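Quick one, C-alpha cells below. Sequence please?
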C-alpha cells in the first residue's frame, strides 16, 4: 500500500511544530533550546577559553569541540544507554563539521570553544535539532559568525518525498525509507552537512535537497526571531 498521507496529518513538505529560545542557561557563555515536534535539544557554549593540556592547543586558531548526549530515558524507542557511545561520538564529530564553516576561530588562538548538546526528549531528527540549537547558542555566546546553521531531515517514505521525518516514518516497514539529514547556511545558500541512510534516486535526491533548503530557511527565521527577542528584552 502506498504512503498516501502522513500519520500526524502534516503536509509532505511541512516540518513538525518548531520552537526556539536562547539564553536559557545562566552560567553558560551562550545557550539555546530548539524543539521540533517531540525532539528537544538544549545547547550550552563555554568559551573561548584556554585549552588544556597545552599540547592540544593550536597557536594559529581556536578549536571547536561538540558533545552530543541523549539522556537515558529520552528516546521515543528503546532506552538509551548512559555514557558515551560510538553513535554519539560520530554525531558529535558531524556536528562540529556542520558548524565550523560559519565560525571564524582565527581570533582565538590556543583556545577551545566547547558545545554541550543534551536531549531530555527525542523522537526523530535529533542531530538536526542539536545542530540548530548549537548554532543559536554560539551566536548567543557572541562568537564571530558568518551565518547561522539550520538543519532538517528530509527523505523518502515509500513513494513520497517528505520533510522532517518523525519516528513512525523512520521505522516505516511497508516500503523503502531514506533519511537524509541536511544542514545549511541559509543566507549563503551553502550546505554544511549532507548524510544519507537508505536508497533514493538521483532525481529524488535533487528534489529533497531543494525541499530541505526551503525548510532550513523557515527554521532560520525561527532561530533569528529567538535571538532578536532575547536582545530586545535585554535592551528594554
Amino acid at each position: 500500500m502506498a504512503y498516501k498521507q502522513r500519520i500526524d496529518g502534516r503536509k509532505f513538505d511541512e516540518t513538525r511544530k518548531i520552537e526556539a529560545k536562547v539564553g536559557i542557561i545562566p552560567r553558560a557563555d551562550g545557550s539555546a533550546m530548539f524543539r521540533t515536534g517531540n525532539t528537544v535539544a538544549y545547547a550550552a557554549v563555554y568559551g573561548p577559553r584556554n585549552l588544556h593540556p597545552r599540547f592540544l592547543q593550536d597557536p594559529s586558531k581556536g578549536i571547536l569541540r561538540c558533545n552530543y548526549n541523549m539522556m537515558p530515558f529520552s528516546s521515543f524507542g528503546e532506552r538509551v544507554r548512559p555514557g558515551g557511545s560510538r553513535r554519539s561520538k560520530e554525531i558529535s564529530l558531524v556536528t562540529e563539521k556542520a558548524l565550523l564553516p560559519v565560525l571564524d576561530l582565527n581570533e582565538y588562538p590556543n583556545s577551545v570553544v566547547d558545545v554541550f548538546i543534551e536531549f531530555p526528549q527525542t523522537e526523530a531528527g535529533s542531530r538536526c535539532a542539536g545542530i540548530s540549537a548549537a548554532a543559536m547558542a554560539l551566536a548567543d555566546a557572541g562568537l564571530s559568525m558568518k551565518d547561522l546553521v539550520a538543519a532538517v531531515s528530509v527523505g523518502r517514505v515509500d513513494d513520497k518525498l517528505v520533510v522532517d521525518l518523525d519516528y513512525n516514518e523512520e521505522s516505516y516497514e511497508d516500503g523503502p525509507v531514506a533519511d537524509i539529514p541536511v544542514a545549511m547556511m541559509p543566507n549563503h545558500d551553502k550546505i554544511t552537512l549532507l548524510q544519507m541512510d537508505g536508497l533514493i534516486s538521483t532525481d529524488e535526491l535533487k528534489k529533497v535537497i531543494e525541499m530541505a533548503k526551503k525548510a532550513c530557511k523557515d527554521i532560520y527565521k525561527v532561530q533569528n526571531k529567538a535571538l532578536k527577542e532575547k536582545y530586545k528584552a535585554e535592551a528594554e
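Strands lie at 18-22, 30-36, 39-50, 63-70, 111-121, 150-157, 160-163, 177-185, 190-194. The chain has a mean pLDDT of 91.
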